[in-house]
Amino acid sequence: MERQLSNPPQLSPRQAERSGWGLLVFAAVVAAAAAVGAFGVTDPATEYAGLAQPVWAPPSWLFGPVWTVLYVMIAVAGFLVWRRIGLGLAVGVWFAQLVLNAAWTPLFFGAGRYGLAFVDIVVLWLLIALTSALFWRASRPAALLMLPYWAWVTFAGALNLAIWRLNT
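Above: the chain's sequence. Below: its structure in token form.
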């Protein structure tokens, strides 16, 4: 008989404290990934504005708010799965996609390697899909929290490809 995973168990005060620290750790890991991207480049808004872009490219001011919301969702999703099943394959793949996420900004903006950044984002997209599938088994809310991120990376991949083609 399959164990029902939709209702989380009641937490003792000690477990609740551990969960609070766990959420902070997941938030810190995601913030570190975001910081790698932010510190890996000097002025991405100016560089973005200087690129030939498709007509459907969003303004640069939109990226900050979107990524802030997505990073919160990514952290909560990872935390929910860790709290449910601990460290393992699902959290490992979650971490791997975060590494590729962190690498994209320095590749695209810092190095101007649009083709390599596109390869990165394609593999990132695949890892987000795998993460979502693995999360679905452990925590459906966590898997659902990953879907807006997957959608945004789909859009970002198309934008990366268009910019690469327009600027080579």
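Residues 14-49+57-166 form a domain with the Ferritin fold (CATH 1.20.1260.100).
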